[in-house]
Amino acid sequence: MESGHPHQLLDCDGAGLRDSIVLDSAAAAAATPRKQRIRMTTLAVTPPPPYYAVIFTSVRTNGDSGYSEMAKHMVELAANEPGFLGFETARQEIGISISYWATLDAIRTWKENLEHRHAQSRAKDWYRAFRVRVCRVEREYGF
After folding, report:
1. Which is more confidently placed, 36 or 59?
2. Computed over its alpha carbons, how large is the radius of gyration of the chain?
3. Is pTM beyond 0.85 here?
4. Contact 38, 22 (CB under 8 A)
């Protein structure tokens, strides 16, 4: 992937949306709290490694039970957390959502966010099974 690209992605398809949202990181860096311009694209643009990926794989329960609205809100909330780098998601029978973070401390802070904790408490309403994996990204390439 090309480094130095000024935008970052939130692909919200797995959150019940059909569009991708790109955050202008230059605007985000200049604003406090971070305010971001939304654009459409496809894949998360991340800085040169190393950075971290949180991979959330899941099998959904039947029905929505407020999931779509909460998932959209969680992506928007995470995007405003310090150290957030981007997000990608896809869903068929198994859902895979990957959030990218600058540091392990940023991931811990997000995990403890009160609104995120509330969403986590509803996991059994939305998932038959899930796994969270935290990984350090050492290398990245693509086109």
Report:
1. 59
2. 15
3. no
4. yes
Q: What pLDDT is attached to residue 27?
A: 33
Tokens 């690209």 belong to which residue? 5
Q: What are the structural domains of the chain? A: 7-137 (3.30.70.100)
Give me the amino acid identity at 143. F
Read off the pLDDT of residues 95-126 as tens digits, 9 standing for 90 and up.
999 999 999 999 999 999 999 999 999 999 99
Three state DSSP letters for the chain:
CCCCCCEEEEECHHHCCCCEEEEEHHHHHHCCCCCCCEECCCCCCCCCCCEEEEEEEEEECCCCCCHHHHHHHHHHHHHCCCCEEEEEEEECCCEEEEEEECCHHHHHHHHHCHHHHHHHHCHHHHEEEEEEEEEEECCCCCC
Per-residue model confidence as pLDDT tens digits over 28-49: 343 334 444 323 347 899 999 9
